[in-house]
Design brief:
The structure is a single chain. The chain has one domain: Ribokinase (UDP-N-acetylmuramoyl-L-alanine:D-glutamate ligase, 3-Layer(aba) Sandwich), CATH 3.40.1190. The protein is built from 10 helices and 14 strands. It has a 10-stranded mixed β-sheet with strand order 5-4-1-8-9-10-11-12-13-14, with helices on both faces. The protein has a 4-stranded mixed β-sheet with strand order 3-2-6-7. Helix 1 crosses helix 8, helix 8 runs antiparallel to helix 9 and helix 9 packs across helix 10. The N and C termini lie far apart (about 40 Å).
Length: about 325
């Protein structure tokens, strides 16, 4: 099967608090940043696959069923009988949402370069990896870099989201390894919050320049409700304004952006056009609870454009 996008990382089962900070109700959903990205891409019409390990347990079976229902190719997914599938909880309060992970020793954290299935990376146009995959474990980090090296050798494009999680590793190590990965990326997808912590810079324009000089041919800086800034390979800069929507949960919004953006790039859109589409998809995913359930399909994004209008990218 030829794929537009192949994502690598760890997927988990999510339990997301609903009804406010004092609620004892949790919605079961699914998470894992690169899995969310894969599902978002599939819902936009991309041919997408996933590379990971899951436990030979009920949660692993739920994930396999999820990907098959969503049209995500699972030829690169294997089970491990000696390790569990990771889970996590999301709680909500005045300061925003808090994640509590139970992933230590998970099947995906034990994934080695030897577990990469032959021919899967060659079958894809774009390989997508994230900073979370680098931080989960030394094994998954080595596997991520091996996959990126193979993609580069084969002439495939590498997409990388910095996705910084300091609960996984110290900032100094995260900075070193994330920047090493960023230098290999053809498409770099940092958030403004992550980029400030990793680069030590405050101004978005300076951050664009920093990552462009680091090696990213295309830098896409996600700024939340403020929109998106881009620096293209030719050095031009673009701004895409944000949307005002009744947001209740931003879990997975950046992952949705990644999947929608890569889909549009695979379809031949220009980076500013792809960012305008992806920014709308990401905004819509914040209207509902959970990382996967609220991810919109293409029809919903296009309907939003018809009713509200499409954001217009502007050079700056």
């Amino acid at each position: 099967m030829n794929l537009d996008i192949l994502c690598l990382g760890e997927a988990m089962v999510e339990f997301n608090q609903t009804g406010g900070p004092d609620s004892d109700q949790y919605l079961r959903d699914f998470g894992g940043d690169t899995s969310n990205c894969a599902i978002a891409a599939a819902r936009q019409g991309a041919r997408v696959g996933y590379l990971t390990l899951v436990g030979d347990d009920p949660f692993g079976a739920l994930l396999l069923d999820l990907w098959q229902r969503e049209g995500v190719d699972t030829a690169g997914v294997a089970k491990r009988a000696d390790a569990p599938t990771g889970i996590y909880f999301v709680t909500h309060g005045k300061a925003g949402h808090t994640f509590s992970y139970y992933r230590k020793g998970s099947a995906a954290s034990r994934m080695l370069p030897a577990d990469l299935p032959p021919g899967r990376i060659a079958a894809a146009s774009i390989l997508h990896v994230s900073g979370i995959s680098l931080g989960v474990s030394t094994d998954l980090r080595a596997t991520s870099f091996a996959a990126m090296a193979e993609a580069k050798k084969l002439g495939r494009r590498v997409s990388f989201d910095t996705n910084l999680r300091l609960k996984l590793w110290p900032l100094d190590l995260a900075r070193e390894e994330t920047h090493r990965a960023a230098a290999l990326a053809d498409i770099l997808l940092p958030s403004l919050e992550d980029a400030r912590a990793l680069s030590g810079l405050e101004q978005p324009e300076s951050i664009l320049d920093f990552y462009h000089q680091l090696g990213g041919a295309l830098v896409v800086l996600k700024c939340g409700a403020a929109g998106v800034l881009l620096r293209l390979k030719d050095g031009s800069r673009w701004r895409v304004p944000g949307h005002s929507v009744p947001s209740v949960d931003a879990t997975g919004a950046g992952d949705c952006f990644d999947g929608a953006f890569l889909t549009e790039i695979a379809r031949g859109a220009s980076p500013p056009e792809a960012a305008a589409y992806a920014n709308t998809a990401a905004a819509l995913t914040t209207i509902g609870y959970g990382a996967v359930g609220p991810i919109p399909r293409r029809a919903a994004v296009e309907e939003f454009f018809r009713s509200v209008g499409s954001p217009k990218p502007e050079a700056f």
